[in-house]
Amino acid sequence: LQECVDILLFLDYNSENGDGILTGKLYEYMFSGTQIWAIGKVNRASRIIEENDLGEVYGNDVEKIKKALKVLLVEKHPKKFSLELLTEKLRHYTRGYQAQRMLDCLNQN
Description:
This protein is of the alpha/beta class. The protein has 5 helices and 3 strands. It has helices at 24-30, 44-51, 62-75, 83-89, 95-108; strands at 8-11, 36-39, 55-59. A 3-stranded parallel beta sheet has the order 1-2-3, sandwiched between helices. Helix 2 (44-51) links the parallel strand 2 (36-39) and strand 3 (55-59). The radius of gyration is 16 Å and the shape is flat.
């Protein structure tokens, strides 16, 4: 279903100590091929979306969100990402890559 929608909304934590929290939903969204809109306090999850050009980060800016929704309603053709390109671009976020890094660290000791 995440691949069939126009956009995915990622509602980020608004707490002061939520900067290091990365939910599993973020990873699902990242590999869906669908553009992500991050709304809420800008923190690590929002920066991952922005740094990897996976969508837009709006924070709590109501005017930017309204403008983006109007554009979406008119265009109705939001950008989709190639899954092959995403897999290469985001490979360091995969479980296999993370597991290999953990093994490498353990083998160093």
